[in-house]
Design goal:
This protein is α+β, with helices and mostly antiparallel strands and about 400 residues long. The chain has 10 helices and 17 strands. A 5-stranded mixed sheet has the order 2-1-3-5-4, sandwiched between helices. A 5-stranded antiparallel sheet has the order 8-11-16-13-14. Strands 9-10-17-12-15 form a 5-stranded antiparallel sheet. Helix 6 crosses helix 7. The two termini are about 50 Å apart.
Length: about 400
């Protein structure tokens, strides 16, 4: 698969030859080739395919062993007797030349990820918490692996990245913004770099063509804002004090709220009455596997600038995202657009209040919005006091 990855134009013909060769080895094999020999390679391919589908190995290194049976079956198939021997020789030589060309080709920027990770390690502040924010260039998980700094993927645009940085206040001290950009072109993240006075700590080309560069910026996360309590009516039962039984089962559930669990994952979203955040009731969410979606059954209109506010506790290790689905009106069942407002990894069990800004000008007067939370929390997280706080005059001036 490494070979196929670097030669996409050759992938289909080689793959076809490989599987045709595999079939041909069973039905058209020569008598002097033991059939068990082919069974071993066939079993290997099946195991690797199951691995890829079941475990979802992202790295092509897990597929490198398939190069051997791939070339073997191609060769066997090429030398069957039902086509000219000259054609077989040309085909095999072409594959050999392509393989040799890949072998002698050297990418001088092949250690880009490792070098970037080393820069992140070097610029970490001792005894302070750090996180990587990846701007959709598919290197965040590898950077996190090499640097041992947690990473969140935010590929919904520069505004979502800005929102996510602001949501880090009170949780992290430093974040490293990572993105790729074409050389000599303005980056979508330039306003963020300017706003947060980000420091460039690393840059390197992706490959020898030198058309795209990987950039790593260090950002000092601003101090946390004051806690807001001046919520206005927005989410019905956003404090989760009203509880009903769900369906005919004796399972308590917050009134006018619901949740969905993706795939075959397991999870629960239940009211709790001990160790609550405020009032008499909070909600505890626990799920394993794929994320759980918590959402209000009602929709809202944003009629003034303000903040979506919610509190969490005991959520260390939880991955949480806040998203919005925008509808033309309350009669529509299909949203016209969806946006991710924040995506974050919780690093504390302490009580924390999120304040996520939303702006009236982002919506048309007739549009209604459903805000919903995507949560992945194997150890559980407590959430409460979901509401809307209007922007203060000082906050509006700061945004301007």
């Amino acid at each position: 698969m490494i070979f196929f990855k670097f030669f996409p134009t050759l992938f289909e013909p080689i793959a076809i030859l490989m599987f045709l060769g595999l079939a041909g080895c069973f039905f058209l094999r020569k008598k002097n080739i033991p059939v068990k020999f082919f069974y071993y390679w066939f079993a290997l391919i099946i195991i690797m395919i199951i691995w890829r589908v079941g475990i979802q190995a992202e790295s092509s290194r897990y597929w490198a062993i398939l190069i051997i049976p791939g070339i073997l079956f191609c060769s066997v198939f090429c030398f069957f007797d039902f086509w000219p021997k000259r054609f077989s020789i040309i085909l095999v030589c072409s594959i050999a030349v392509a393989t040799l060309g890949k072998t002698i080709h050297f990418n001088y920027n092949s250690k880009m990820i490792i070098n970037a990770a080393n820069a992140i390690i070097a610029y970490q502040i001792p005894k302070q918490s750090s996180i990587i924010i990846e701007g959709g260039n598919s290197v965040g998980e590898r950077l996190s692996y090499y640097s041992e700094v947690p990473a969140i993927i935010q590929d919904s645009g520069s505004n979502a990245v800005r929102q996510t940085i602001l949501s880090l206040r009170g949780l992290y001290d430093t974040c490293f913004l990572v993105f790729s950009n074409t050389v000599n072109q303005e980056s979508l993240y330039d306003p963020i770099i300017k706003e947060f006075n980000a420091e460039l700590i690393y840059e390197q080309f992706h490959d020898n063509r030198q058309k795209r560069k990987l950039f790593v910026y260090k950002i000092i996360v601003p101090p946390p804002p004051e806690q807001r309590t001046d919520m206005i009516p927005f989410f019905v039962n956003g404090d989760f004090e009203e509880v009903v039984f769900k369906s005919n089962k004796k399972i308590e559930f917050p009134r006018l709220w619901d949740f969905v669990i993706a795939g075959n994952s397991t999870g629960e979203c239940i009211p709790i009455y001990n160790d609550v955040i405020s009032g008499k009731t909070s909600v505890k969410i626990t799920n394993s596997g794929l994320p759980l979606t918590l959402y209000p059954e009602t929709r809202n209109k944003v009629e003034e600038d303000g903040f979506i506010v919610f509190c969490i506790k005991q959520g260390k290790g939880t991955r949480l995202a806040l998203r919005e689905a925008v509808y033309k009106n309350n009669l529509e069942f299909i949203s016209i657009r969806e946006n991710e407002l924040i995506s974050i990894l919780i690093n504390t069990d302490d009580l924390h209040q999120f304040q996520i800004p939303v702006y009236k000008n982002n919506y048309r007067p007739e549009e209604v919005i459903r805000f919903y939370w995507i949560i992945q929390s194997p150890d559980g997280i407590i959430i409460d006091d979901i509401g809307f706080c209007p922007a203060l005059s000082t906050e509006q001036n700061a945004e301007q």
